Amino acid sequence: MASIDFKFPGMSRETIERKAEHLLRQYQPSVLSAEEPFFIEQFVDLHLEDLTGVQPDYRNLPAGIYGLTDQNEMVIDLSLVEDPTARQFLHSTTGHELGHAILHVPVLRNYGRQQVFAQKKEGQGEVNLYRRRDLKAYEDPEWQAWRFAAAVLMPRAAITALCRRGYNLYDLAQHFQVNLIFVERRLRQLGLVAG
Question: Where is the IrrE N-terminal-like domain (predicted)?
Fold first, then answer.
């Protein structure tokens, strides 16, 4: 069986920002004006399957794996859902997997691949993934999914408005219901400083 080299199309930061903003305008526009956080769990449960054809599920995953997405389902580890102290981590993980569902599942379907994220040893199977170290950031599906998660959970317009109002890191983390490190990275991405 002949193997093919598979690489997801590159995507600019701006393209990812626009895709996240489009989703928010369509489903919860109040997030863009910083009125409230994105209710990501509700969105996934109510709209993910209709929007992408990907069915959400919550079940125990192997240790160290908190989410996975293929062209049929998005799975979030049940331990995150059941642990009230892991809410912020749950939101960022769900945002990351939502990024895969929106940005990458259409590509997988176009190529007729069930699960390309599972790398195999060279010579086994028909799909050879490029290794992350060989990709530019904008070509890396993991970078793309994290960028999407940040943009959908902390939209540029909302985080900019809150910074202008003097919100500090803790205020921003509480407003967007994400952890501090996620806020710090987002601020750096956008060239912003919290109050």
Answer: 93-187
Per-domain boundaries in the chain:
13-123+135-188
Name residue 58's beta-bridge partners: 76
- From first to last of its 195 residues, the chain has per-residue pLDDT tens of 444 567 788 999 999 999 999 999 999 999 999 999 999 999 999 999 999 999 999 999 999 999 999 989 999 999 999 999 999 999 999 999 999 999 999 988 887 754 444 433 344 444 445 566 777 778 788 999 999 999 999 999 999 999 999 999 999 999 999 999 999 999 999 999 776
Q: What is the pTM of this model?
A: 0.87
| List of E strands, 51-125 | 55-59, 67-69, 73-77
- Token pair in block for residue 91: 């939101």
Inter-CA distances, 175 with 81, 82, 194, Å: 19, 21, 13
